[in-house]
Structures are given as structure tokens and as C-alpha cells.
Amino acid sequence: MKWFFSDNDGGQESGYHDAGVETFKGDFYSYLARELIQNSLDARHDPNKPVVVKFNAEDIPRSEIPEVDSLASAIKRCAEYWDNDRKALQFFKKAYELLRENTISALRIGDYNTTGVEGSDVERNKNWYNLIRCSGSSSKGGGEGGSFGIGKNAPFVASLLRTILYSTVTIDKKVAFQGVAKLATHANLKDGLSQATGYLGGTKGSAEREFNDIPERFRRSQAGTDIVILGFRSDQEWKNELVFSVLENFWPAIHFSDLEVQIDDLKISKETLKGLLDDHAGKAGFSAHLYFRAYTNHPPVDFHKDLPILGKTSLYLIEGDPELPKRVAMIRGTGMVIYQKAFKSPLRFCGVFICKNEKGNKILREMEPPRHDQWDANHPEKGENKRTESEFLSFIRECIKTLSPAEDSKIINIPGLSRFLPDDQETLEQAFNENSTETDQPQESADRRPKPQQLVGRKIDPKRKSLQPNSTMTGTGKELTEQPTEEGEDSGAFHEKDTLLPGQGTRIKTEIGGPGGNGRKESVPISYRTFVTNLSSGAYVVVVTSTEKKEAKAILRINEVGDDAVRTGIEIRQAFILGGELLAVKNNAIGPIALYPGCPVRLEIVLKDPTRVAMEVEAHEAD
User: Fold this and answer.
1) How does pLDDT run across 161-184, given as a tens digit for each residue?
2) Edge-to-edge strand order for the sheet containing 466-468?
3) Hey, how many other C-beta atoms are within 10 angstroms of the C-beta on 151?
């Protein structure tokens, strides 16, 4: 065996920043699990048994890695040739030092109940050629997961050597072994240049296809494929990160008994799935347990429809729990969660949309970009799948509407009301009644006349509880707070730095520190609205708009205003920002939250003790 880097022979040079590898940088554990498991599911052999994928970390003695000195020499020449590129120089120096150690860290990913990778080094229509020898090409079709030939670059991101070893056994007992290194153009030993990609194998880097010629450590006895990532970029959390990714992305395939995953000694199967989801339920950014609940809810809230373009599809929903993210997990035939789509609704909910039929699965796969994390109406060509997107989004929206109780109240036009309501220009989703037109209901003309000037009042010092004359200042506070009468009505109006007590010509000056702190913080001028959405659970919506001229990081404090105008802090159990982001809460303080001039921020809060209250919102600069 030899490492073979073909002569560049006047061709284009390739630097360290390989486009295919760069695609998967960032949360590479997530991409690693998504791409490799998806490939294994595409190669499933017996449809009555699950595909099994095993991740095992190991330390390989340097002496057991074929031609390690030759690889180290190529990496050293890369460092010398690209000494003007700081990142490239740093990477190749570190890789060279790593190859001089006695043992090399590695991650072996092996799959079972798969067909192995079929084809020779020159059969362009077979998987082996597209996996090893070709860039940006795939022989997959139909409803299979990968379709660009780019996902095979994901393992290289996890390698500190940019080097992967492949070993496969096919159903008909054919074997193949190959090493691939994605480095950079470098000087060869003949005073010329070598290409960036090198191959470990026989003549001119051809794959080894005799069982006894494959190094013993990398031989397989069962049909399937091993991918060995040399120089595995691991840390103390690598197992947890992979488990997190597998649960988030593949809980449907595992629940359908299509997949089992083993990460060292931890097995993720249909039998262990629910327990593992519950164990991860409290982790930041983890939401798979909520979608699993939606799919397995009893009795089910499910909808099934044969759509004109996509064919048979299904949607499963749950609603009411304050922690639900108002999103739908979008899933197709492979059982992988492609992405999570946000939808507008007056109720908190989450759902699962599934399209498993062959026709719809093929269309949706074509709408996915190389990372398979979206269904894009403008992919593969601009506007090509607009009708498809409109079809499944309309189906989902119509189903979500059924969760809300029928509207039996009449619409009343109240002249002058618009003077007390801020402009709310949220654009994350359409209004919930998306099919309504401007003529569906009476329209109110904007009334922006200034409110009458308030009488001169006295300023109250809350520490001394005494009145002091304030003849130099008029009462210009912006608050007119009313007790709500029905669920969903406003319980607050406009508020700014100082607030005007209803029916009185006095102003209260507030000096409140941030959450957990005793120091006084500068007020941030805001306007806001509050209204209750679910009285039994204590759920309220608070819409806050900064009237400052610059961006501010603010702590919001929520107070109850009693009949006697006494303000007391309200204990808040949870707070969310629109879209499901969980916010830090301490007693009645929320934040910090970024406020932008004139941009409404919609919060959804849940009170510790559900009750109907009139609210006041104060904003102060965060630490």
C-alpha cells in the first residue's frame, strides 16, 4: 500500500479551505450523525430489521496505520507550501505533530443490515466511485436521503488529519479498503506539485480488494461499511453531543423500528427511546421529546390528507402546554427530522408532519439543499416548488386552526382606540386568519391626535412615602391601565419611564436594580401591551416596544397594579420569546432582552400563581 497524490500538472491549486468540508463546519457532531446515519438508512438490506449504526472511539497504535510516514511527509509539505496562510499552517503543523505520536485517536462508525458500498473504482454509476473518486456527485435516486454527493465530506470536518479510512463488505461478499486524505496542493518529491486529495491503496491509489491485503485492524466479517476517522476531533462531551444529535434528528426512524444506534456502551433503540428523551428534556435547545409526545399522543390529534402534489401526508398535534414551541417537525421517508417550521397560533402547540409515500418523498428530497436541513421552494431552481410548499403549508395551517375554539364574539369598532395601541409589525408568520381580506371586517381609521395634557401633580418618593411639590413639571405619563373583563382583552396600554396613576395627577419615579442586584439601573423607555391567553394556566402575552433611539439590553420587570394603585411584583414561572426561545427568569424579572427602536418584541409568560391581574411592565438597563 502507498499514499498516492496525483501530479497537479498545471491544474488549479487547492488550498486548505475545501468548499465541501467547510459546508459542515460548526456543529459538526450534528452533521456527522445526520449524514452518516442517513447514508446507512439508504443502504438498508432487510426491510424487516432495523439498520444498526455503531460509534466507537479507539486509540490506534501508529504502527497499525498503513503508510503513516508517507502521510506525515505529505502533510509536512502542505505546511511548507502554505506558510503564508495562517490557518492552513496552524492546521498542518498540528496534524504533523499528531502523526508523530505513538497512538492516534480515531472514531469508527460501522453499520449493519446494510448492503455495503458496491462498485469498482471506475463504475461511475455505482456508489463506491461516487463515495471515493468523485466530488459533488451521487448515484442515489428516488426517496433516498443524500442526493448531492456532498454529505460524504462531513467526516473530514471531525478529523484533525483530514483523513478517512473506508472498509466495506457487500452482500455478495466482495470487499474493498481505501484511505482518502483531503489536504491541499503541495510540492511533490519531483520538484512539481501534487493535487490536494490523496488515496491510500494499490497502484495509483486503487482500492485494495483482496481480504488478506487489508490491514487486520480494518477488516470486516459482515456486510456493511466501516468509516474510520483518523485524528478524531473529540472532547469530553463528544458522546453526549452525538446522543443529543441522534435523538433530535432520528427519533422518528428509531420509533418506527427502522434504526438502532449504539454510541460506545449506550444503546438507542425503540425500547430505550422514551427514557432517553425524558432524560434530555431539560437540556438547552432540546425539543425532540415534545414532538415525540405529539406523535404518540393518546388519544391522537391527527390529520391525514391525500394532497394533489405530495400524495398521502399526515400531521400530528398537541396543544396547551406552555413549553410547546409553536413549531412542526418536518419529516419524510428516511425518518430523519429535516427541520422545524414555526407557525402562528393563539395557542401553544407542537406537531409532526410526515410524508412517507414514494412520490412525495422524491419531490421533497429535491427541495433540500446539500445539508438536508430545509424544504426550499426555490430549490433546485427559483420558484420551481412554490406550489408544493404552498400545498403542505396550507394543509398544516388549516389543521392548526382547528385547535382554537370557534370565535363567537362580535367585532366592535371603537373610535379612537388606535391612539392607545402601538403599531405591532411582527413578520415571522402571517396573521393566524391568513385567508381573510381587508374587507372581511370593519376597518378603523387611525386617530393619532395628542391626548389631553394632564394636570400638574406631585412626585411620590416611595422610600419616604411623602408628597413633594413638583410645580416645574406636567404630568405626561403614558399609562392608562384597566382591569380586563374577558380572557384575551388587554390588561395594559402604553407605558414609558414614568407612569401616570389612573385618575390622578401624580407620577411615580421608579429606581429598580437588575435581577439579583441591588444597584439602581437606568430606565429604558418603552410602550407595551399585555393580555391573558389562558387564564387557567396563567399564560399572558406581553408586547414590548422600545421608544429609545438606540439598541438596548434590558431587564423587564412585571408588576401587578391593584385597585389602590399599589404595585407588587408578580412571580413568573416561565417566559418565552416568540418562536420558542426560553428566557431567564428570577421572581418578576425577565432577561436580558435585546430591544431595538420601534421593533415590537412579543413575550409569552406563565405566572406561578394563575390569576387575572392588571400588569405594569418596567424596563431597566441590564448589567
Assistant:
1) 999 999 999 999 999 999 999 999
2) 466-468, 459-461, 507-508, 499-500
3) 24
Distances in Å between the alpha carbon of 411 and those of 407, 443, 444? Answer: 10, 10, 11
Task: Report the run of H or E that residue 4 belongs to, with start and end.
Answer: strand 2-7
Strand ranges in 435-538 using DSSP code E only, listed in sequence order: 459-461, 466-468, 499-500, 507-508, 526-534
Whether residue 262 contacts residue 52, with contact meaning beta carbons closer than 8 Å, is answered with: yes
Chain mean pLDDT for the chain = 81
Alpha-carbon span 343 to 323, nearest angstrom: 15
First and final C-alpha spacing in the chain = 62
Predicted confidence at residue 579, as pLDDT, reads 62
Could you give the count of Cα atoms lying within 13 Å of 594 in the half-sphere of its Cβ? 2
Is the overall model pTM greater than 0.70, yes or no? no
207, 181, 209: which is closest to 195 by C-alpha? 181
pLDDT digits (tens, 9 = 90+) for 75-106: 999 999 999 999 999 999 999 999 999 999 99
DSSP character for 133? I
64 three-class SS: helix
Q: What is the pLDDT of residues 263-290, one digit of tens each?
A: 999 999 999 999 999 999 988 889 999 9
> How many angstroms separate the CA atoms of 294 and 315, rounded?
9
pLDDT band at residue 201 using 50, 70 and 90 as cut-offs: very high
Q: At 607, is the secondary structure helix, strand, or coil?
A: strand
- pLDDT at residue 584 in the model: 86
Q: Give the three-class secondary structure for 304.
A: strand
Q: What domains can you pick out in the chain, each with its CATH number? A: 2-234 (no CATH), 286-401 (3.30.230), 457-621 (no CATH)
Three-state DSSP class for 562? coil
